């Protein structure tokens, strides 16, 4: 899928001027046992610009996944509204404006790795040759060329997650929604995929909303890091990472003083100060 353009856009189609994601006054209350409800999100306002990389970080249970699911139209807010490229989340989902890679890889067990990656392309009428070519590129990108004809249950959890990432990226979506996609990977693979992700995003101009528990990961990847507070989830602060466009970043950045300074800024925003006590569910290494 290409970046949205205003020229010749069909009515209701995404426009170049609209933010990738606009969250306005969103709340989500889940009904709980014995009539006790759970307020997962409260008064959340967030704008993600076209092409911007934004991470969500915060203590376990603060509503990061809930917010991502609302943007993906996998759930509905109790209050407020969500627009994706200027149109309601439902329309954006039906218009395939975004790719998703969530914690559970969500692969179809009866399809091979290659067929899983090709699935969104075939659903959108991409021809066989072009599908194959793109799947080959994606397989190489995630280091699974030799596993193209395997089935998901023949792969490790980390490998399955890499297939899910390849599938989400196959269409070069204008928006990627990612919920801890690298959480199950070993550190070396994780860093390699982080670098690949920033490169791909620069290449495709995709905006990304990325949920993670890792402060360094959030800093390496993001233009801005959104820090959420413990339940009910609210935005406690937003750190402008200030390390240049995320697409121009490479591994040398991980040794850079500006990078360490940004990691410290996010850590302090998470703890509401420099007391250095990690919140539950947040990795500081
Ligand atoms: N379908 C649901 N029904 C009831 N409660 C829910 C549901 N989904 C989420 N919650 C509750 O909403 C709160 C936020 O959950 P969510 O999964 O969004 O948090 P999170 O920040 O992504 O957590 P983690 O970092 O542990 O993955 C939690 O208290 C959770 O129990």
From TrEMBL:
PANTHER family: ALIPHATIC SULFONATES IMPORT ATP-BINDING PROTEIN SSUB, TAURINE IMPORT ATP-BINDING PROTEIN-RELATED. One of its GO terms (molecular function) is ATP binding. It comes from Cellulomonas pakistanensis. SUPFAM superfamilies: P-loop containing nucleoside triphosphate hydrolases (SSF52540). Residues 21-255 form the ABC transporter domain. Keywords: ATP-binding, Lipoprotein, Nucleotide-binding, Transport. InterPro entries: AAA+_ATPase, ABC_transporter-like_ATP-bd, ABC_transporter-like_CS, ABC_transporter_ATP-bind, P-loop_NTPase. The lineage of its organism: Bacteria, Bacillati, Actinomycetota, Actinomycetes, Micrococcales. This is Sulfonate ABC transporter ATP-binding lipoprotein.
